[in-house]
Amino acid sequence: MPKMKTKSSAKKRFKVSATGKVIGAQAGKQHGMIKRTKKFIRNARGTTALSAPDAKIVKGYMPYDR
Question: What is the pTM of this model?
Fold first, then answer.
């Protein structure tokens, strides 16, 4: 069997922690910051762990990062 390929877009955007959680950037901070509240922008700094359904999808894109 040939090796499975990792999605290049996923390896650039996500990483898997030591406990197996998928870490990614906070959602909703790419554009349109004028309409966002200051509280939202403040709370959406840094990275966060993805929810279980989203993490399952991303782990399928990165078969060797488990």
Answer: 0.81
* Element containing residue 58 per DSSP (H, E): helix 52-61
Tokens of 45: 């700094």
Measure the CA angle with vertex 40, ends 35 and 46; round to 5°: 120
| pLDDT tops 90 at residue 40 | yes
- Here the tokens at position 16 are 């898997």
φ, ψ of residue 15 to 5 degrees: the values are -140, 155
Tokens for 15, please give them.
Answer: 């990483």
**pLDDT exceeds 80 at position 27:** yes
pLDDT of residue 1: 87
Tokens of 32: 């349109």
Separation of alpha carbons 35 and 39, rounded Å: 12
